[in-house]
């Protein structure tokens, strides 16, 4: 009998071990990781295959990188997306854990009887072989509630991957706008500097001829020095803007060397009159990825509350057993369950109910914040577009003034210094218009990010969501 029992244990252990997973050692090497990050490029073959799978008709890599193509590169490379994807994988793995049923237990207690009488020893072996099988049974649908909770949490994690893609696009749009603004600011500063240098040279000639006093030349030199400082500042801003852009994509800054950018979306204010803003606002309140994720969080909190309510009812553990004692076969059937005398899970139920309330409050706060952001941006954009019209009118006035100065110069009715002054005023008007344009584009970026709707883009919201969750093979 003892041999039979040992054989049974060996078979049971073999069956349990055969399904076990093996550990896959993947050490993390900081040097190798840094090397991989530094090797990232926009012409990477993996990025090309991944992007072409999303946009089959697109030429890749493009000759000039616009916002949409850089968005795909950021979704492919940026570490925030990588973290969001791994969190979604963790949530999906938790679904497997939640669906598992509890394993049964077996208790084996072979006992040797040392003081068995001589007569009994002659007729039976001095052993007692006992084993008990414990079979846990979950009651009141606890497993189903647990599976529902993890399924909702997994859905929320997948939605947050899509939301991370929108956040990456918003950061990228601001960074690309800064690259454009810095390049334009440097160009305009260089233009102003060149005009001021010509004016200073002309004033020095007049001073040498005794036509003007020295203070006028000194004031011109002061203005010239300030413009030189402005050029240096613009050059520093342009260099830093490329670092910001590389960080927004998730690549090293030297990967942008030789890359040409397409700034067509930034050279003029966005056309907002064609946007169905009321419809987009309602869609944002219902369909933004973070809104849907918050709804999934609330549903998970609901399931967690249902689980805790079910936990107030005890589970049952069946304990069938067999004992072979001095030649006798004894069978038993037992059951075990906790007695809910001291508490009925009230604390856990209260915590789960409070958690559900917190999820509801977070959802309301999110929708309120979306409404406030949309109203604030729309109000600011209306004022900025009016400001843009004023800047355009000022540009027109300065252009007319320059044309008049050129005509007078051609007829000899004015000197070159007056002509240079008109050119300098026009350059100042161009710089003021650039500042208004950048401010308008910044507000448009906030509006796009709030609506989760790409403005003046070839990408659609569904494509951005698909690209965020599409598997990236590197």
SSE order and pairing:
Elements: H1 2-18, H2 30-38, H3 45-54, H4 67-77, H5 79-99, E1 105-108, E2 111-112, H6 118-123, E3 127-137, H7 142-208, H8 214-249, H9 277-287, H10 289-310, E4 316-325, E5 328-336, H11 346-410, H12 416-451, H13 461-469
Antiparallel strand pairs: 1-3, 2-3, 3-4, 4-5
Helix pairs in contact: 4-7, 5-7, 7-8, 7-10, 7-12, 7-13, 9-10, 10-11, 11-12
Commentary on this structure:
68% of the residues lie in helices and 8% in strands. With 474 residues, the chain is of the alpha+beta class. The chain is built from 13 helices and five strands. It has a single domain (65-463), classed as Outer membrane efflux proteins (OEP).
